Structures are given as C-alpha cells and as structure tokens.
Amino acid sequence: LNHQQTDWIYDYFTQHIRSQLIPLMLNEQARLPLLQDDRLYLGVKLTSKHAYRYAIIEIPPSSLLPRFVVLPPAQESLFQLIFVDDIIRLCLERIFFMYAVKNAYAYAFKITRDAELDFDDDLSKNYVEKMRESLSKRPYGQTVRLVYDALMPVDLLHLIRQKLNLKTGDSIIPGGRYHNFRDLMAFPTIRSDLEDVVYRPHNHPQLKLYSSMLKIIRKNDILLHYPYQTFSHFLDFLIEAATDPYVQEIFITLYRVADRSKVINVLANAARNGKQVTVVIELQARFDEKANIHWTNLLQRTNVKVLHGMKGLKVHCKIALVKRKKQEQTVNYAYIGTGNFNETTAALYSDLGLFTSHQGITQDVEKVFTFLETAIPFECNHLLVAPYRMRQQLEAFIEQETKNATNGREAFIYMKLNSLVDEEMIKLLYKAGKAGVDIRLIVRGICCLQPQVPGLSENIQCISIVDKLLEHSRIAIFCNGGDYQYFIMSADLMSRNLNRRIEVGTPVYDKNIRQMLCNIFEIQWNDNVKARNMSPTLLNTYVPRKDGEAKVRSQTELYTYFGNLSL
Q1: Which of 86, 151, 369, 487 is most solvent-facing, going by the fewest CB within 10 Å?
Q2: What pLDDT is attached to residue 168?
Q3: Burial of 37 by CB count in 10 Å (0-12 exposed, 13-18 middle, 19+ buried)?
Q4: Contact at 8 Å (CB) between 518 and 477?
Q5: H-run or E-run covering 554
C-alpha cells in the first residue's frame, strides 16, 4: 500500500467497519460467546510491554460489508482490491489502542456445528412443530470442526480449542490465510470485458408465446434443457393450469424453491381459482427446512393441500401432474425433471425436464402422488421409482448389456450423473466392462469407480465437467441390442438415492427427443476445454486436445445448439 491508500483504508475503517466490530477478550476464565456456523473469525494475539493478550473478532458478513474493497488506484489502469479481513488486520492497533499494543497479529478461523436434526417422541406434536423445535436448536449444536490459519501460534490455537471443547481427536484442520471463498461469487466488477457473458436463455421452438402449452403437449412430448432454454416455459405451464377452466387438479413435489418463488405464487393462485392443489414439500431438504416450513404455512392459508412425504424417506423426485377434464374426457399432463422447481437455480444449474401427456407415464406419475398421500403400494409400468424398483431395473439394464456383450452383440452404457458411489452398481459396471460393454460416464462430482484400470475397467471411460454452470442433469442411455433405451432421472447412483429417497426416472419415447439426448451427451463427451479425465491417479487432469483439434467447450456448444433449434 502507498501512503494515499493507507490513509484511505484508515478512513474507510473508521466510516464503515469500526462500528461493526465487537472484540471479545480471551483468557482462561472468559466464557466464549456463541460462535456462528461458517462465519469468519480472527483470532488475535497482542503483545504489550509486559504481557500477551488474546482476542476474537468476527469479520462482518457480506450482508453488512463487502468481502472485497476496491482501493484507489496506485497508478492509471491498475486495479487493486483488498480483503476486508486485511483491513481489520491493518487496523488492529487502533482497535486495541487501550492496551498500548507493541505488536498485533490476526489469524483466520471458522467452525462448523453439528447440523443434524433431533426429533422428540411427543405424539401430541405434528411433524412441522417437531421440525420447528429441532431447527431452533441447530445454532447451538456441538462444534464438530475447526478450520484455522496454519500460521496461528500454538498458544492461541490451544486457547480457542479449549473454549470450543475440541479434543485432539476432533476435526481440527490447518488451512490458509483466507476462508469462505464462496464470497468470490460476489466479486466486484472491475473490468466488464473480463466478465463472463451471461447468455439469455432460448425459447423452445415449439412453445410460442401466448399459445396453449397443454395443446402442444397433447400432440407431442417436449424436452427442456435449462438454463440453455428458459424456465419460464414451466411457469407458463403452471399458470395455464391455474387459469384453465377445465383443469381440476394440480399436483407437484417441491424440494428447494427460490427465495421469492414464482412457483409457490402460481400454486397459491391456482387454489384461489378453485383448483384442487396438492403440494408435497420435503421438510428435510438440507438447510432449506426453515424456508419449507414457511412455504407450508403460506400454501395452507390458501387452502392448498400440503403433504410432507414419507417417514424415513426423503421426497427428492421432481414431478408435476395436471388433470384436465372436458366433456367427460380427462387428459393428464405430466412433467418429470432432474432439477428443482426453482427459477433461481434454473439459471445456474444444467437440468432437463420432460413434458408429456403419454397415458402410461401420466398414470404412473398419478400412482406416485397417490402413494405419497396414502402410502398404498403400487407398481409402475414405465417410470423408474426409488426406493422400490429403480435399483432392480437399472441392474437389469446393465446385466442385459453384459449378456449382449458376452454373446458378441453390440452393447454400450452411456450415463451422465452427479455422483457414482453405490458399491453394487459399481460392481455391475466393472462386470459389464470386463464383458466388453463400451461404458462412457460423465460424473461431475464424487466417483468411486476407477476407470481404465488394466484387468478391471479397460472398457470404462469417465470424465468430469466443471464449468460456469453446475452440471446437474442425469441421463442414462442403454444399447439394448440396438433398440436403444433413454432415461432422465432425479437420482444419482448413490445408496441414499436408490434406497432412502423417493426418486423418479422416466423413459423417453419421442424419437426427436431421443436424438436430442444423444446430441447432448455427444457434445459433452467431446468437451476438450473443461472436461477432466477421472483416473485412478486422482490427478483429474484436463482432457488433452489433439494436434489441430478444435476447442470444444460443451456448455458454450450447447448454448449454440439450442439457439439453432430456436431459429
């Protein structure tokens, strides 16, 4: 910092930060106040003439102060920023002026508390009341992790550990000088030419503005791919259902919704219009429990029937059903998706959603909703539903490919997932690969399968794509002896998805949409910019580009692909 910048920072500290700080002096007798989960703190060590002193300062959250502060330029066209953490460090002697400080040093740390929810057995309380009481205890949960600046002096670390009741065997993790890098999501705009271009989502070519979506879906299935195509189409679907005089019932599952949810608003208005609206809200959506209690109360005030899923099972499927009756003829319209009904994340997450009036699929969707309301056992003829038959059906598909490969027939398995963890599924994929099945996997997150291991998985290739959009869709394509099978699903190949959650996958029968899924998978499989090889070495190096090969950044290519469809 030059003198001008230093003076500017001191002034900024006085004007904006000083009043937000309440230092807590630490000693053997002082009781530590409640430190909040994932907030940032500075452990401070002060040296004065005759003693050491210790303190804790909470770094104000980004809702009160920006994490990054733009400094006056030291020279023309040079942009400099500083962490608010470092402004506080610079001003430590001003904060503790009363102690005649000789030296002052600050070291970042944060804690994580146990977030598990505990429910009592009081039969007089309903599920919402139990959830509300349990949530009220979450901020006071036991400290289960401490992450701290590795340069923190041993005496200061020992004192903080002692105050948090952390023992040697607990999760105590040395880290760097700065934490909570998700704050980079709100990094200030310095040069607009360096900012990512925010693409405007395309309209689906068949879904014209101010035309009936129900009529279009009655004629043929529609596949949407967010955020390349707009989530507004789904909202239009709900709005039409909410106002159409012949629509009698609307059903939907909600796991996470936007803070100011348009979906919730439309459902409430549908009930006001006299529709029978049934909403399944999962109260155990991790860290969205409080919000979902709020939405429960709001919907119930408008006479929406709200269900809270099944005991011991999370309702994680993304399905909706509209029942329309005209002149004694009832037509059902269904939506089965891979992502939440959340217009905020639909702009950031890559997800798929299928609209259909296919009689068999819509009947199956109705069975799922009946089960969620009554717990009556059911069998589906088309849908894959966990935890009931999805695992067995997927296993059968993989075993069929294995059998075909063993008999010298064409066999392949192409899957796009968020996570691949389930041990039994991995064993079946190894077996299929050994039999000669061509297996291509795109797994964005955790992958416990080791591809391309001699004698184990030579025929299994796996990549991960991490780019500016979160890859969240799930696709499965099986060769099936040349009669290809296509599915989109809400489930990953994880034990929790297959065994402990209500998940739904749907087959895709429309030949044009099948081709579209092939194209989507092929574009992503050919990514040589953001794709990484998942290999036993755990290096996750980028997929190499061959000499003269054109760059393929799949998310950019997909935006162009869907733009061309709209022409």
Answers
A1: 151
A2: 74
A3: middle
A4: yes
A5: helix 554-566
What does R_g of the chain's alpha carbons equal in angstroms? 28
Cβ(520)–Cβ(496) under 8 Å?
no
Residue 503 to residue 338: CA distance in whole angstroms: 10
Q: What are the tens digits of pLDDT across the range 141-150?
A: 778 899 999 9
Per-residue tokens: 380: 């589906």
Rounded to whole angstroms, the maximal C-alpha distance in the chain is 92
Residue 521: which residues within 8 A CB-CB, separation 6 or more? 414, 416, 440, 442, 475, 477
Distance in angstroms (rounded) separating the CA atoms of residues 567 and 559: 13
Catalytic residue among 316, 358, 382, 472: 316
Annotation says 358 is catalytic: no
**Collapsing DSSP states into helix, strand and coil, what is residue 263?**
helix
Give 337-386 pLDDT, tens digit per residue: 999 999 999 999 999 999 999 999 999 999 999 999 998 889 999 999 99
Cβ-proximal residues to 24 (8 Å cutoff; 6+ apart), any chain: 30, 32, 33, 55, 56, 57
Choose among 181, 113, 179, 104: nearest CA to 147.
Answer: 179
Alpha carbon distance 390, 43 (integer Å)? 50
In the chain, count of helices (H) and strands (E)? 15, 25
Give the pLDDT confidence of 56-72 residue by residue, as tens digits: 999 998 888 999 999 98
Report how far residue 297's alpha carbon sits from residue 304's, in angstroms, rounded to the nearest whole number: 10
Question: Is 417 in contact with 396 (CB distance < 8 Å)?
Answer: no
pLDDT at 130 over 60: no
User: Quick check: 352 and 224 in contact, CB under 8 A?
Assistant: yes
Name the average pLDDT for the chain: 91
Token couple for 28: 């053997």
- The CA distance from 287 to 283, in Å, is 10
Query: Among residues 397, 356, 355, 364, which one has the least CA distance to residue 382?
Result: 364
DSSP 15: I
Q: How far apart are alpha carbons 382 and 367 in whole angstroms?
A: 11
Q: What is the pLDDT of residue 535?
A: 82
CA distance 554 to 532: 12
Cα distance between residue 56 and residue 43, in whole Å: 5
